[in-house]
Design goal:
Blueprint lengths: L1 H25 L8 H13 L3 H20 L1 H24 L7 H21 L8 H11 L3 H16 L5 H23 L16
């Protein structure tokens, strides 16, 4: 029971860090946090769907695959993670003003918080939703590191979104993904003997 409680504490903490990254450092510069946001932009551009619905649609499809591949427990944790991050972003972005010194510093800080947050989520058997889900599926099948797979998928989507949004934003997004996925891989490969609950538990059911 104690292990379950601690795992959910880490889950909420990881999702909260991801929300801080988005609301304070990335979204103020219109930098997408990952490929799901870029995919939503493309769906909006190609089919005329609203951005909110496009983002929900992308996550719903990925969660359906996640349920089939990873099982109900993993999917449930991911839904909680996504809800916690969304709530954090909504609250922080509207209630707490945050000074921005320079966009490069914001990208560095955003990448750090995002990478740590997603890394923790993966370690406790969850994810941040979006493109992390297919990245974990491919990583499991090919025995590759999740961060590198996530970087490759997001890079492809960001290249496509460069047809829709300012190329500078795409460059910033790629830099952010490059840094954050390195941090994700570091946390994923980190050997933590005293915290068995942080052993990667996203394996196929």
């Amino acid at each position: 029971m104690k292990k379950i409680i601690l795992s959910y504490i880490f889950l909420f903490f990881g999702a909260f860090l991801q929300g801080i990254s988005m609301s304070f450092f990335l979204f103020p510069h219109s930098i997408p946090s990952g490929g799901a946001a870029g995919l939503a932009l493309l769906v909006n551009h190609w089919f005329g769907f609203q951005l909110g619905f496009s983002l929900w649609l992308a996550n719903a499809v990925f969660l359906l695959f996640a349920y089939q591949y990873f099982g109900s427990s993993w999917t449930f944790r991911t839904i909680i993670s996504v809800a916690t991050t969304s709530t954090t972003v909504s609250f922080l972005a509207s209630q707490i003003p945050f000074p921005h010194i320079h966009i490069i510093l914001d990208i560095l800080a955003g990448s750090l918080f995002f990478g740590i947050g997603v890394g923790i989520l993966i370690r406790v058997g969850s994810s941040s939703g979006g493109m992390v889900i297919p990245a974990l599926m491919i990583a499991k099948y090919k025995n590759w590191s999740p961060g590198k797979v996530m970087m490759a998928i997001n890079l492809l989507i960001f290249l496509l979104t460069s047809l829709v949004i300012d190329y500078k934003i795409v460059v910033y997004a790629v830099i952010c993904q490059f840094l954050s996925t390195r941090i994700i891989d570091y946390i994923y490969e980190l050997n933590i003997h005293r915290l068995a609950l942080l052993t990667p538990s996203w394996r196929k059911k």
